[in-house]
């Protein structure tokens, strides 16, 4: 598994280097409704910026969904703990005799 991670990192690094070398022209960044313009940014920085924004958004979505799963897991664990304590308290009670002969008591 460790070698797979190293290989994936090497491929990703080579991919980033190829993009950076082949996209060195400068461009102007302007977000139309906003009055700001950034001049002279290399194209590869915009590509990497888009990649990292996408990774960050995916990370935020994954973290927020894990909060929901953690909360439901805590509720289920609390319910299991309560049921186990109830079962333990019921098993410690003495058994009462019943008048119904069909019900046999277990010893």
Sum this structure up briefly.
The chain is mainly α. It has 2 helices and 2 strands, in the order αββα.
Write up what this structure looks like:
By secondary structure, this protein is mainly α. The chain has one domain. The protein contains 2 helices and 2 strands. The chain has a two-stranded antiparallel ribbon. A hairpin with a 6-residue loop joins strand 1 and strand 2. Helix 1 runs antiparallel to helix 2. The longest helix has 49 residues. The two termini are 54 Å apart. The mean pLDDT is 86.
Percent in strands: 5-15%
Order of helices and strands: HEEH
Shape verdict: elongated
The biggest sheet amounts to: 2 strands, antiparallel
Number of strands: 2
Number of helices: 2
Mean pLDDT: 86
Q: What structural class is derived from the secondary structure elements?
A: mainly alpha
Low-confidence stretches: none
The percentage helix is 55-70%
Distance between the termini: 54 Å
Strand order of the largest sheet: 1-2
Radius of gyration: 31 Å
**Count of spatially separate domains:** 1
